[in-house]
């Protein structure tokens, strides 16, 4: 899951999620130290959990569901990083912080029902920019009128003032 997408998930209106009894949780195979560093550097307000042994990933049989080619198909409005930027950032991060797993490994997005007993929505990423659009997640959670209620705005729909607020929050 790209950092751009994670930051977009973090911009979803928390009061609207709370009103609909929904919570966003991220689970990553990154080691706990890397998770803490990312959460601190990006000022995330959503919980992020480490599954370094990839227990959940394995339980969902995710390794066998994807086109595992190293591809960077930008098909998501949530990806604002260019291909060269992504490769340079990944290389620098690998050198300075150590490798964090197989870059071909893909994730997914899930909506779990009451008491976490049922999965009401599942999206398995096929490649690294194949993120489910946030409006689709909001609809799956029960917020079909996400735009009207102000639950989320795409980055390219935000005013410069709104972007400045987000950037200022991230820089603290």
UniProtKB/TrEMBL annotation:
Q: Record's Pfam families?
A: AhpC-TSA_2
**InterPro entries referenced in this protein's UniProt entry, alphabetically:** PXL2A/B/C
Taxonomically, which superkingdom?
Answer: Eukaryota
Q: What is this protein called?
A: Uncharacterized protein
